[in-house]
Amino acid sequence: MQVTAAQIAALVSGKIEGDPDAVISAPSKIEEGGEGTISFLANPKYEEYAYTTTASALLVSETFEPARKVSATLIRVKDVYQSLAVLLKHYESMQSEKASGQSEKASIHPDATVDGSAAIGAFSVVEAGADIGPDVVIHPQVYIGPNARVAAGSILYPGVKVYRDCVIGSNCILHSNAVIGSDGFGFAPKEDGSFEKIAQVGNVVLGDRVEIGANTVIDRATMGSTRILSGAKLDNLIQIAHNVEIGHNTVIAAQAGIAGSTKIGSNAMIGGQAGFVGHIEIADKVRVQAQSGIAASIKEEGKAVYGSPAIPYSDYLRAYAVFRRLPDLQAKVRKLEKELKDLKQ
Question: CA 136 to CA 162: how far, in whole Å?
Fold first, then answer.
């Protein structure tokens, strides 16, 4: 990547303050910088670094007013994070080579359908009846099971496993070792204390533009489909159980776990290590703080919750403010009890 600040400003629809000919070769963190790099200031807590960074250019908000001199060329934009996303995507496209062709070391069943524009890496397996669409990129060591379908433009990184009958929508990204369609956790207890496995005969359906993080597992439905709707983004190390539904554009951070048949609405935001019991419904735009435990349905759209079991976010903060003072409060109560006892005597 060798571009000028002016070219970057044109890419992100920004306005230049400083040297438009400053040469940029890479992005950098604002606290590290480096000559020839571009960084960004979106969070006010990092403003101090704007005055000390050695980056050659800096993405800032249109409303940013420096308290001191900034040596970097400023590129003012309406939305710093959106502009950063555009810039980094452009940088990634310049750095990476687009995979092409089908490796001779891949195993593609004669009864599979593979579009001629799809790329399939070495030691990947595409089973009978599978359908691989245009411009799909399947990296090495990926498994596509019987009758599975991967739609146009999706990218499957090394080690991804897509079990039989599962459907991957268009322009999805599945990171390394994601598993789509493993058996749901279904067992029937028997009189002798053992468990009989219940066959999981459904599938998993991912909508378009879904991103699945590394080592995330999405179980197939017992019957019907486990569904991740279009635009949803799942982080690494997440467990999605059978017959769960995740709504449009919902984001879920790492290590969350969602039990069977739970339905989560659209545009929800779920923090890391949050846990959901099964057979509940979560409304649209609900916000779940990290490490919260959701034990009942949340029907109010946009509600924020925290804690385990989760309660309204503001209630949790007030309760915690008291909880952390419990030792002092206990000491005061004991002191008052002693004083009251002395008075009675």
Answer: 14
Ramachandran bin of 339, using left for φ above 0, alpha for ψ from -120 to 50, beta for the remaining angles: alpha
What is the C-alpha R_g of the chain? 26
Report the predicted TM-score, pTM, of the whole model to 2 decimal places. Answer: 0.86
Tell me the CA distances in angstroms from 173 to 136, 233, 302, 312, one per residue in order: 10, 9, 27, 34
Residues noted as catalytic: 242
Asked if residue 226 has pLDDT above 90, the reply is yes
Residue 301 to residues 107, 250, 272, 297, 323, Cα–Cα distance (Å): 48, 13, 21, 11, 28
Which amino acid, one-letter code, is at 265?
G
**For the chain, which domains are there?**
3-95 (3.40.1390.10), 107-317 (2.160.10.10)
pLDDT band at 92 (very low <50, low <70, confident <90, very high): confident
Number of helical H runs and strand E runs in the chain: 5, 39
